[in-house]
Amino acid sequence: MDQQTATLTLTNQQYGFQFQKKTTDGTDLSADQLKAMQFNLTQYSDNSFQQVSKTNAITSTDLQALAPGYYGIQEAAAPTGYQLDGTTYLFQLTSDGQWQYHGTKDNVTSGSVINGQQTLNPVGDKSDDFTVTGDHQQILTLTKYDEPKPSMTLRVIKQDNQSQYLAGAAFTLQPSAGEAETITSSATSEGQAFATKLVADGTYTMSETKAPDGYQSNPAKIAIQVATTGKEATVTIDGEALKPGESKNGYTLAIDGSTITLQAINQPLAILPHTGGQGYQRLLGIALGLISAAFLLLLVVLIKRRVVKQHD
């Protein structure tokens, strides 16, 4: 009896979860913004999603290997400048390799198979979703949207004491969370040196690090606290409150709705005469004239004294 040899190939697939971050305003998130982001991936021991087995913090979009079981995914920290959404989405990886959606922690459902795209909660005019593609059935992808925090616009108008708009000043703007931003002023027809967003519930400090050519630098330190609503702000200059309409240390404040305007004044540098120039010669001439006048006055006094003595 002939023996036949059969070859059986077994393919083991690694199942896993990953996420991608998007914003409702379509802004591409920077590396610095993404550093602040974190998700919590929780494994549960039963289909009631009550008994927690373990929770892992995820700070990258790398694939997270998963075994069959019950899971919840929650945004724990939003990217810088965006609002946190604390919704926990529940899902299951079955023993036969199916992904099922079980609602949210506040509204647990019996589970439905995720086939293609599963629409989740709305976020602004977008919606989060779970996706399982035909080519990668073993990977569940969460697309998570975030809305920008409310913000105010800071406008700085740079001019001299003659109301001439100035360019070439450099400012440092330091948020309480994040890296400092260096801004070089330009001179637009409206005098706007620069404009930038200040996120709600944030504190910012601003100072001039370079004056326009021919002008004195203004060493004042500005601090701006934006309210949680993004509609109000408190401004101080060198530790003293600066109210709308007030002027202190070369700065004047105006607040119109969600726009903060700071008018920043620079004084021109004093012009000193050059040695050997016309200014120096003019001063020398004046000095010589005064010396000559004093000499003539002294001579007149001496002559009068001599006349008086001769008369006596």
From TrEMBL:
Name the PANTHER family on file. COLOSSIN-B-RELATED
Q: Which residue numbers delimit the SpaA-like prealbumin fold domain?
A: 31-99, 154-239
- Supply the Pfam families for this chain: SpaA (PF17802)
Q: Which UniProt keywords apply?
A: Membrane, Secreted, Signal, Transmembrane, Transmembrane helix
Q: What is the name of the protein in this document?
A: SpaA-like prealbumin fold domain-containing protein
Question: Transmembrane region positions?
Answer: 283-303
Family classification: Belongs to the serine-aspartate repeat-containing protein (SDr) family.
Q: Does the keyword Ribosomal protein apply?
A: no
For this protein, the record's Gene3D superfamilies field holds: Immunoglobulins
- Keyword Transmembrane helix assigned to the entry: answer is yes
- Write down the InterPro entries for this protein, in alphabetical order: Ig-like_fold, SpaA_PFL_dom_1
**Can you tell me which residues the record assigns to a coiled coil?**
none
